[in-house]
Write a structure and sequence with these properties.
By secondary structure, the protein is of the alpha+beta class. It has one domain (20-121). Helix content is 33%, strand content 20%. It has helices spanning 2-9, 41-51, 79-89, 95-103, 116-119; strands spanning 14-19, 32-34, 71-75, 109-113, 123-129. Strands 2-3-4 form a three-stranded mixed beta sheet. Helix 2 (41-51) links the parallel strand 2 (32-34) and strand 3. Helix 3 (79-89) packs antiparallel against helix 4. The protein is globular and about 45 Å long. InterPro entries: DUF3990. Pfam families: DUF3990.
Length: 130
């Protein structure tokens, strides 16, 4: 990703490396939203809602624009997923087609840190330059 961004905007790719204690998901007082390990309807709605500038229902549990969740854990919405989301938003495919398309994609999980309390758990241990 760093190489791709550097190629688009110029400059050299840089990756900051962080560590976090095992068991950080059990830290007292953190509000953590853990989504399924594989893409699901719930995950798709959560990602689409939080990428949308028009979705502002902060009381909805599928909204984190207000950072109600300190950490969100779930599959990465990579370029393949982004294409499916765009097709759905442009009404080229149905929500059912979106969900079916996601089931054939290989995903990995990501941990997204949204608040100062969550970021404070990270320890920077290095920088990698290419």
């Amino acid at each position: 990703m760093a190489k791709r961004v550097a190629k688009i905007y110029g400059g050299n790719p840089i990756v900051n490396v962080y560590e976090i204690n095992d068991g950080f998901l059990n830290e007292h007082g953190l509000n953590i939203r853990k989504l399924d390990d594989t893409p699901s309807e719930e995950w798709a709605r959560f990602v689409m809602n939080n990428r949308s500038h028009s979705f502002t229902d902060y009381s909805n549990s599928e909204c984190n624009l207000d950072n109600k969740y300190d950490i969100v854990v779930g599959p990465v919405a990579n370029d393949d997923m982004a294409m499916l989301f765009r097709q759905y938003q442009n009404e080229l495919i149905t929500f059912e087609n979106l969900i079916n398309g996601m089931t054939f994609r290989k995903t990995t999980n990501q941990y997204s840190f949204h608040t100062d309390r969550a970021i404070a758990l990270l320890r920077k241990v290095g920088v990698e330059n290419d």
